[in-house]
Amino acid sequence: MRSETYFDYNATSELDEQVRQAMIDSMSVYGNPSSRHSYGAAAKTIVSEARAAVARLMGCEPEAIKFTSGGSESNNWAIKGLLEANGARGEAHIITTEIEHPSVLQVCAYLERTGRSRVTYLPVNHCGAVSIEELQAAIRPDTKLITIMLANNEIGTIQPIREAALLARSRGILMHTDAVQAAGKLPLNVRQLGVDALSMSAHKFGGPKGVGALYVRPGVELEPLIHGGGQEFGLRSGTENVIGLAGFGKAAAMIDRAKLEAQLKRWSELKRMAVGRLQELVPDCRLNGSAEESEALPNTINFEIGGIRGESLAGYIGVKHGAAVSVGSACSATKQSMLSHVLRAIGRNEEQIRSAIRISLGPAVSEADIERLCCQIAEAALHLRTVAAVGSV
To answer: Which residues pair with 215 in a beta bridge?
Structure first.
């Protein structure tokens, strides 16, 4: 992958070379981690080391980390498993937001449709932020679970999860957060956040696809989503993905606080540069989400250019320059007729939503890459407007 043309890190990140090597090395360890012989013990060691590395990253004990196939499974498991294990059936009330990932929204819709729960979808402000006052007002006697994402995948908005978790705990309500876009990008500590469950995925920060984790606070009951052989402390059956976990563990182990803080500072500088250059080169460029650095992921820039379809712009710079940007969530990119529910929730109309582009940065992106991309976007905007003008004559 060429970092100078790839700007879609919120969809997935490139596999770090050290992670790749760790996975290659693990391929010679072919034992089943559940087998009670030396081959199984070697595989089990890889799984245990990965669990410990992810636990260190999240500031918890290894036993609190349950491995999954990724963020979507973690979200499904958290919502269904927490409700079922804590006796919340039939009349349970869930509070979430209008801008959650589909793997949360569709689970909530399923639980509503099957009569298992009732759901309140909190609105957000024009920056995509949830109000703690509105969250408090939405709580009912039958509220059993609050699930709010930590950082939004489309516009980067960071939610007040610690405050939400404190409120939930004071009312005896379980709190889950989807931290798929935040884990590995922001310094997180689950004890400081105070959540009961947290979802994450390896491929968002240099690890492989198809492997993730669910943190569950010690003492919180969780019902299995997958039954069988009793792996993952009896909570998620199925032979462990040893190769994937070797990569996940290495990706997690490579992140330290100093490195993360330096990366965040660098991303903030690049984001300011990108927004400034885009507004300079394309004056009618508008940012979606918060402009305040403390309120959004520093690697995420969502913007629109009036009168230009995001799909056309992305297609132009992709074909001519090989640049990769996004026009929406990768998880819903195949549904071409589906407009972004996130941008709709922050008050953007259909035309504005169709004009939206997302740039998301990774560790290797440089100032030169940003300058080049901004010039390519300006070139594309001019070209598309010229074509449109000629076509209208």
So the answer is: 65, 198
